[in-house]
User: Fold these one by one.
Assistant:
Number 1:
Amino acid sequence: MRVAVLGYGTIGRGVCEIIMNPVTSYTNRMSISHIWIRKGKEKILPEMCDDFNIILEDKTVDVVVEVLGGLEPAHTMIIEALKAGKHVVTANKKVTAMYLQEFLDVAKENNVQFLFEATTGGGIPWIRSVEKVKRIDKISDFHGIFNGTTNYILDRMYKDGSEFDDVLKQAQKLGYAEHDPSADIDGVDVANKLQITTSLAYDCIAPADFPVFGIRTITKTDIDYFREKDQVVKLTAEAKVQGEFLSCCVEPVVFSKDSMEASVPDNFNLGSVTGTTIGELKFYGQGAGKLPTGNAIVQDIIDIMEGEEETAFDFSKDVKFCYNKVIKNYVLRTTATEEDIRSVFGSHVKTAEVFHGNVYYTIEEVSTLTLHEGVKELQKMDELLFVARLNQG
Amino acid sequence: MRVAVLGYGTIGRGVCEIIMNPVTSYTNRMSISHIWIRKGKEKILPEMCDDFNIILEDKTVDVVVEVLGGLEPAHTMIIEALKAGKHVVTANKKVTAMYLQEFLDVAKENNVQFLFEATTGGGIPWIRSVEKVKRIDKISDFHGIFNGTTNYILDRMYKDGSEFDDVLKQAQKLGYAEHDPSADIDGVDVANKLQITTSLAYDCIAPADFPVFGIRTITKTDIDYFREKDQVVKLTAEAKVQGEFLSCCVEPVVFSKDSMEASVPDNFNLGSVTGTTIGELKFYGQGAGKLPTGNAIVQDIIDIMEGEEETAFDFSKDVKFCYNKVIKNYVLRTTATEEDIRSVFGSHVKTAEVFHGNVYYTIEEVSTLTLHEGVKELQKMDELLFVARLNQG
């Protein structure tokens, strides 16, 4: 199995390290034939080239691994590779969320595979596990912690009693957070992963516009407020079937301290999926990093090599996405006046509690839609407000 | 895919329920053709028979599911089914631990498969996941909570502050524990599962005689003693590579309250496996029960149906099992005199602490072998002693 890797960042290096140092009969049968790098970058390995045509025209290349990140040139290169009859494996959640259907269609036309295990949950076999659950069961819901950066930040804030900005700087220093951390802390990265898993779990092309609230505004005081109640906040993605409707969202969620979710440390991920007969399954592991994510990519290459049965992706179902069917309880910390809050949430506002000079309101039995629209209204008065859902098991 | 089920207990009913009520294109292609029950039992379904030859001679039967439990007639029937050219899928850990090599050999000779996902971790895709990790990595260790009954007992003791005997009775009433609970509470059931996973993870036939200590003697006071230190006890199986040696054991382990293991509720299981590049993966789910275990069996049947690449089991490695290489710390509660304890454990005895009239000793930097041999000595003086390993991450 001859592999060409597009990009030589963290994950690209991981893929090369695993394939160049094989310890099993599977990885022994692979080799790196090309590493594509951008023009002007130094070619530090003999496999490196900056001309993609060399890879497209090399008939001995079986698989192209795309680990460039971002939309372009990733999108164009994936399409060209598929059209050239190469299987494509990617870790790029952004381009996969945006173009999943196109990639799968072009792959099918050219009788090759497009695999994307590494897009969600890093080294965790999440995508394959969801596919496996679907062989027997209907999935009633899935949820999880799918962003290592924000889990690291929330875990350090909880364990060290630090402020958000200090931990973010520390995370950037350690390479856990990007220079511009927006995609992570605003929930955009998680939203891409949620979109991918939703498409897969429910046989549809999931929309990109579901409600998202990140952790940019969380404070040490918020963490302490929940700590006093034996609760821990985690940034969570969720998809839930309610009758004939499907609801998805990305929100900070407050878990009981003794839950599995609350125990997820550092930059680890935890994905949960519930099926009719299997009940709840949870999958835990490194959500990012050179070798774990590289491992997920190499697992996809092995599936191709072993001719494993291709998943028959079917995105034709007319799933009704609806955000006012799932009813939950929330905690809102804001400096907006109680009058303003009541004008937005009406009788859903149940209790108000003062903690270290902040006021925390419970907003009860409210739909995802009402909550997120109300929050947007209140952000006009208090852009630093924070809201989190109470986990109801 | 025509399936014959041997046995119609909890799991047999689960398999039939899933196959007879298909909701996917996979289960739609299966049917139950025979259910074998013991002579004299009432035939409540048209598929039932008590003559195994009918199944062996029915050329339309593709897969035989063995869910009888115990060694015989399970062993004989599995061998006969394989020799008759039927694939065999089992949930029976006892017979699989004892005869794994024979089953795989006979399956190979007859060009059929012997699959056993349901033997370990109930509905959790544990066996397949360990196999998958091995496609790329060496496994440095695996461990986990693989017995739902004891986890239920320990969880209720912790959460309700109940005594062992009361919770055991409650578990028996709920059907979580057998009338004779020895196999569960003495760690024998976990030991079978450890033996199966060890054979698989390390390409060898694992011996059955590794050190085992169960939870029969744990008391409410023990639970409270650890609770005061923010610790939770779980019955755990472990296999660990130390240089060229492999060490396995079943022991109660004391985890920090904020660990994933401590959070495992009710009769759930949690398996962890660590590989070179993937790092640590954890798999959580229902470790027993009609539908989850039935689901694991049906997953095996789908793998056969889909012609998934058969795992090339290789038990030929000369693995050196050795129990005096892994050094750990333990807590021992006993009424034996300090002189007796010191005569057994010497300078490994570090501290003694009195809690509610019991004395708890720490036995530090001691090998598995020394610990278990010492415990056996002390049991002659105090058969109700309790020992647990301190988890060191």
Number 2:
Amino acid sequence: MSANAIYDLMRTQRAVRRLKPDPIPDEVLQRIMQAAAWAPTGGNRQPWRIVMVRDRASKERMGELYTVHWDNFVKIYRQRWVDAPEERRQKEERTIAAGDYLAAHFGDCPVVAVVCFNPKFMAVTDAGQDRVSVVGGGSVYTAVQNLMLACRAEGIGCVLTTLLCMDEPAVRELLGIDADWYTAAHVPMGYPIAGGYGPTARMPVSDLFYSDTWGNPI
Amino acid sequence: MSANAIYDLMRTQRAVRRLKPDPIPDEVLQRIMQAAAWAPTGGNRQPWRIVMVRDRASKERMGELYTVHWDNFVKIYRQRWVDAPEERRQKEERTIAAGDYLAAHFGDCPVVAVVCFNPKFMAVTDAGQDRVSVVGGGSVYTAVQNLMLACRAEGIGCVLTTLLCMDEPAVRELLGIDADWYTAAHVPMGYPIAGGYGPTARMPVSDLFYSDTWGNPI
């Protein structure tokens, strides 16, 4: 049954941050891009574009910007685990070390996929609510998830990052991104240096799903 | 190769709006929920919860609210195609008819998955930009896409809707959604009445992807 194949991919869709500089063959990239293109979007508008950055100078510049935000993020992230059991803290330190590696080697990744979007092609139905808006992302991250699952299927490591959105004007200028288009994610891609993919640590279904009303066990 | 199996699912992930009232077996629902739970989220915070609504009165009330917004949406949507060739207009009218069916039968769908999120567990890195924010969605719609791909794999029709976000306060009250949690999507699920899934009409990769800089052909 084909369902089992997709579940195996999803179950092992780990963030892979240590990537080899080896190029990704064009035919593999083509299949990954096609997977993203198939994703559903609101009103089928497909309000996203992805710049596949292979130019070394551009990747290195993004890496410089990324490193600043990553280093700041790590300070906050470590605070979350300061009182955690030693074993858990060590696990988080391994994640941080992998992130440090990614930041230091951003320019070495064969491809950084810079995901852009245009709000003019989106019906942002939660724009009127008194909280941060997310609905525009419903027509962007479906495609990003398809792209990442395709990477997983092809044995290519990747990780969804958004820290560079804090430096959006600099990235827009660097890549010549058109007026009205903005950045939603930056996905470094490459073959894994170590084992790469594997089982993930997620909350159980019983903590994430409710039946009929909030808090009612599924 | 397992990659082909996932590409077949993605290629045929059509929005399915005509759904049978037949219940979805618990073991199938369990697999679909597990698929969503595996999705990556920022800092692995999993800042989403999904209320699986099977209660008929709640689904019917959401259907009443949905119908108002759907009817308004259709008026705007038809304007997009008023000057399109006859064949294209007829295609869009078939989509609208399917949406009309969904709105009229919201209460008949066996499950409506109401996707909730909590901004407190999100690092919204584009909050400082002078445009609508989408980054919070990066930790929500990855899970929604997994859920929908799992539905596809299980032969269960579904469609990502967000129109009810315009009535978020009413939905929050209806389902007793906790303070600090908001709504990001509403996914009606059920076995397809007609053919259901099939090939989709999407833009080609060459229109969606650029190489190195904006507008540069991939």
